[in-house]
Amino acid sequence: MSIAEKLKKTLSTDYVVNREALQQKSSASYMSKAPLSSSIPKIIAKPQRENKFPDMTTEIIDKINKTPYWHEYSEEAKEKMVSKYFDTKIKCSRYEGLKYSLADKLFFIEDVLKSVIA
């Protein structure tokens, strides 16, 4: 075996051994420095929305359930009717001072349409 072959063999085995040692060392030092909280995934739960208009919801659901041809309307028409009902009722003196957002109105419409008897 020539000197070049011996040197090549020695260098290649040293390189492999050193690379493995460095990888183990770097991963061990990384794990020891990593804070525990960063390794635990955080689960963020969305809070359930609250219906600000329970009385109005009950009123419209009762009206819808008494309407025999309600199911003949398209989903879009149903949404428009519930929206119009909401707009009309909110102008009434009982709900006049109540503050609400567009998200509250959309939640009301969604809640009513889900609650109607199929």
Labels describing this entry:
mainly alpha, 66% helix, 118 residues, 5 helices, rod-shaped
Number of helices: 5
Which segments are poorly predicted (pLDDT under 50) over 5 or more consecutive residues? Answer: none
Range of helix content:
55-70%
Mean pLDDT: 76
The gross shape turns out to be rod-shaped
Strand content: under 5%
**What's the story with the biggest beta sheet?**
none
By DSSP, the count of extended strands is 0
Please render the helix and strand layout as text.
Elements: H1 3-33, H2 36-39, H3 54-66, H4 75-90, H5 102-115
Helix pairs in contact: 3-5, 4-5
Give a quick precis of the structure.
Helix content is 66%, strand content 0%. With 118 residues, it is mostly helical.
Commentary on this structure:
This protein has 118 residues and is mostly helical. It is 66% helix and 0% strand. The protein is built from five helices and no strands. It has helices at 3-33, 36-39, 54-66, 75-90, 102-115. α4 packs across α5 (102-115). The longest helix is centred in the N-terminal third of the chain and has 31 residues, at 3-33. The radius of gyration is 34 Å and the shape is rod-shaped. The mean pLDDT is 76.
